[in-house]
Structures are given as structure tokens and as C-alpha cells.
């Protein structure tokens, strides 16, 4: 058996963040750029990912600024997002090693649902953009609204699957990934903010997810 597979044999679940982890950028910033408010929304996103703002409040504020964007344009953007280097290959190798691969995103289902079909992960948990008469209403709800949401969902998945934190690896980049780091034995900070790096036991600063495979040797 190859060294990588020997190393991950004990692992049963890998959870990836989406924005700036599986995807190279922030989905909401792409939406905002369409409305000409890219810099304004990106500044709020940056502060939220650094842990300077409450995630729930910042999400509500940013989505509110998207009111009026055509949902057809949302789908078009989501189908053209740039995936991170090595995302598809890394997911395939993890699944070959027997892991379930899941995506938790503080972003949006139109992006993660389409990415699931392209990258091959097993399930996605994200938020829903409310639509009225074909345009975003500025309202949002869903699975990943709070700073604690990813950790809460991870604990529930572990209970459902009958696995422990030691059998779990997580990969993220921002402050809203901290709650899932608290429940995983392998914690990978990928091109991450300092607030997350401090809680990681693997730090990767190169934009290539296949680095994960090398670090597991």
C-alpha cells in the first residue's frame, strides 16, 4: 500500500470549506462585482474572515447589498467560478482512500451544488439566497449562518457516521472555520488567515490542494 493510503486509512471524513479553499475566491465577491460594489463587499468579507466581524451579521449585510441581482446571473456566475488548483484531483484521491468528502460553506448552495457535480465531493451544506420575481431579495437563510454552524454540523455528521474527531480532517481558510477545527484531529489551514493558522496542525501557504496529499505522507 502506498504511504498516503497508509496514513489516511484511519481517516473516515474530510470536510472542506468552499470559498478560498475549494474555489479560488469568494463567491459573494463575484456577485458584488456584477453590481459594481465589489470593493465594498470584499472589504466586509475580508474583515469577517479575519474574525473581526460577527459572521451572521456580516453575511446579512453583504447579502442585503446584493438585492436586485438577477438569479439567472447568479447561476451563470456560479457555473463559471474558478476552482482551486488540485481540488478535483485531491478529492478523488481522498475518496479512493475511503474517505467521505463533504463541503461546508458559509456561502451559497447555487455555487456548492454545482461544484459538487464538477469536483466530485459527496455532499454540500451551505446557505440559500431568497429569490423574489427572479431577483435576489437581499435575504438569506440556511445551514451555515453563524460562527458556530460548521462545528455544529460536523458534530452531527460524526454522530451519524459513528466516527471520532481523530478520524476527521478539516480544511479551511477563515475565522468561520474555527468551530469545525475544534472537532477534528487533523486541522489544515489552507492559504489561511492568521486566526485559523494558530489552531491548525498542518499549514499550507501554496495555492495547490494537492499539497495536502504530500503532507499526509
What does the radius of gyration come to? 17 Å
| Helix percentage | 40-55%
CATH C-level class: Alpha Beta
Strand content: 15-25%
List the total number of helices.
11
SSE sequence, one letter per element? HEHHHHHEHEEHEHEHEH
The average pLDDT score comes to: 94
Total separate domains: 1
CATH superfamily: HAD superfamily/HAD-like
What's the total count of β strands? 7
Helix-strand category: alpha/beta
Largest sheet, order of strands side by side? 4-3-2-1-5-6-7
Which sheet architecture does the biggest sheet show? 7 strands, mixed
Shape label: globular
Query: Do you know the CATH architecture?
Result: 3-Layer(aba) Sandwich
What separation lies between the terminal Cα atoms? 12 Å
| CATH fold description | Rossmann fold
Uncertain stretches? none
Please identify the oligomeric state.
Answer: single chain
State the gist of this model.
It contains eleven helices and seven strands. The chain is α/β, with parallel strands linked by helices and 217 residues long.
Please provide a written account of the structure.
This protein is of the alpha/beta class. It has a single domain (3-215), classed as HAD superfamily/HAD-like (Rossmann fold), CATH 3.40.50.1000. It is 42% helix and 21% strand. The protein is built from 11 helices and 7 strands. The protein has helices at 3-8, 27-34, 38-49, 55-64, 71-78, 87-96, 109-119, 149-161, 178-181, 194-197, 211-215, and strands at residues 13-17, 100-108, 123-132, 135-142, 168-172, 186-190, 202-204. A 7-stranded mixed β-sheet has the order 4-3-2-1-5-6-7. Strand 2, helix 7 and strand 3 (123-132) form a beta-alpha-beta unit. Helix 3 packs antiparallel against helix 4 (55-64) and helix 5 packs parallel to helix 7. The longest helix is centred in the last third of the chain and has 13 residues, at 149-161. It is globular, with a radius of gyration of 17 Å. The model has no long low-confidence stretch (mean pLDDT 94).
Amino acid at each position: 500500500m502506498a504511504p498516503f493510503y497508509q496514513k489516511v486509512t484511519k481517516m473516515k471524513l474530510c470536510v472542506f470549506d468552499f470559498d478560498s479553499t475549494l474555489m479560488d475566491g469568494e463567491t459573494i465577491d463575484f456577485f458584488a462585482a456584477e453590481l459594481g460594489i465589489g470593493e465594498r463587499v470584499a472589504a466586509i468579507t475580508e474583515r469577517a474572515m479575519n474574525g473581526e466581524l460577527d459572521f451572521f451579521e456580516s453575511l446579512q449585510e453583504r447579502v442585503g447589498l446584493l438585492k436586485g441581482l438577477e438569479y439567472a446571473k447568479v447561476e451563470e456566475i456560479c457555473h463559471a467560478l474558478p476552482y482551486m488548483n488540485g481540488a478535483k484531483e485531491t478529492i478523488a484521491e481522498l475518496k479512493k482512500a475511503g474517505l467521505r468528502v463533504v463541503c461546508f460553506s458559509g456561502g451559497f448552495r447555487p455555487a456548492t451544488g454545482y461544484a459538487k457535480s464538477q469536483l466530485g465531493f459527496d455532499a454540500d451544506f451551505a446557505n440559500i439566497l431568497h429569490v423574489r420575481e427572479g431577483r435576489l431579495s437581499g435575504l438569506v437563510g440556511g445551514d451555515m449562518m453563524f460562527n458556530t454552524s460548521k462545528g455544529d454540523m460536523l458534530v452531527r455528521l460524526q454522530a451519524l457516521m459513528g466516527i471520532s474527531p481523530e478520524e476527521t480532517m478539516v480544511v479551511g481558510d477563515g475565522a468561520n472555520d474555527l468551530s469545525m477545527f475544534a472537532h477534528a484531529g487533523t486541522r489544515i489551514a489552507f492559504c489561511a488567515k492568521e486566526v485559523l493558522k494558530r489552531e491548525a496542525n498542518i499549514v499550507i501557504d501554496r495555492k495547490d490542494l494537492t499539497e495536502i496529499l504530500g503532507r499526509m505522507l
